[in-house]
Write a structure and sequence with these properties.
Structural class: mainly alpha
Helix content: over 70%
Radius of gyration: 24 Å
Distance between the termini: 46 Å
CATH architecture: Orthogonal Bundle
Length: 288
């Protein structure tokens, strides 16, 4: 006799589904609706098909912003992932100082994004900022407001300071899961420090490293608040990333059709690159 199926658990899931529908699905459908229509005003819309998508894909301005965005994410990953691993490997594993270091590492993550931009905006000023004044006193012609290289360097250092802790804490959690027996066996075999890292620590961190890479890529590819507060996308368009360009199109110019198409393409690019990251890293993890 078949056991009766109890579907009452769906009543517990239903509130979550309703919440997701209102917070994600319905706004997404609104964006899709705007992306395929045009208007002459007075709330009168007509079908535009893929016109806005074609306009976005043909835009040299958006292509330039995409190039800056990819370059920024590549620099961030190239710095923060190795640096986070290095910091995690040198953090105390037990005792009082382990707790102190964990708290200190978590502090940058607790600061709101707009406050981070404001802190570095003041920090980098030549007249009153510690960083800008120190570099000027050392003879460096530093000015993140007028020099694109200085603006890029400031934004990169700001992001590294803000988010390397996340990578370090994730790697630290992976290291803490390694049994002491592995290290004892390595000492018996007189394995080098590099061999311990290569064959014991790195494989055990592979899972959290995948999470760290995906989180840092998605966040860096969608970065908006910090560079907007710090440079406003300048000087010129030197630090105008995709998110800043999208906000200018949607709010500054109020071009809802192109902005909707832009946001959908933006979302698909992030989804595609994240899928590539995930596929490549899981394939390497499962390889013999």
């Amino acid at each position: 006799m078949d056991k009766p199926v109890n579907n009452r658990a769906w009543f517990l899931v239903l509130p979550v589904l309703v919440l997701v529908a209102f917070s994600a699905v319905i706004p997404l459908m609104t964006v899709v609706n705007y992306s395929v229509q045009d208007t002459f005003g007075n709330n009168q819309f007509f079908w535009n098909g893929l016109g806005w998508f074609q306009e976005v894909l043909d835009s040299d301005r958006i292509r330039a912003a995409l190039g800056r965005q990819i370059l920024f994410s590549a620099i961030i990953l190239a710095i923060e992932i190795p640096l986070g691993i290095f910091v995690a490997l040198n953090m105390p594993k037990r005792g009082f100082w382990a707790s102190v270091v964990l708290v200190l590492m978590a502090l940058p993550l607790l600061i709101p994004w707009n406050v981070v931009g404001t802190i570095w905006q003041v920090f980098g000023r030549v007249d009153i900022g510690l960083l800008g004044h120190t570099l000027a006193a050392m003879g460096f012609d530093y000015n993140y407001v007028n020099d694109p290289v200085d603006a890029w360097a400031t934004i990169v250092v700001m992001d590294v300071w803000h988010w390397t802790s996340l990578v370090a804490l994730l790697c630290y959690a992976g290291l803490q899961s390694i049994p002491d027996a592995y290290y004892q066996a390595a000492r018996i075999d007189q394995a080098s420090r590099w061999a311990v890292f290569r064959h014991i620590e790195l494989p055990k961190m592979s899972g959290v490293l995948l999470i760290a890479v995906l989180l840092r890529f998605m966040d860096s590819f969608m970065i908006y608040t910090e560079p907007f507060v710090l440079t406003g996308g300048g000087p010129g368009n030197a630090t105008t990333f995709l998110s800043i360009d999208l906000v200018k199109t949607a709010i500054g110019q109020f071009d809802l059709g192109p902005a909707a198409a832009f946001s959908l393409i933006y979302f698909l690019v992030i989804l595609l690159i994240s899928w590539v990251f995930y596929t490549v890293m899981t394939a390497q993890k499962d390889a013999p």
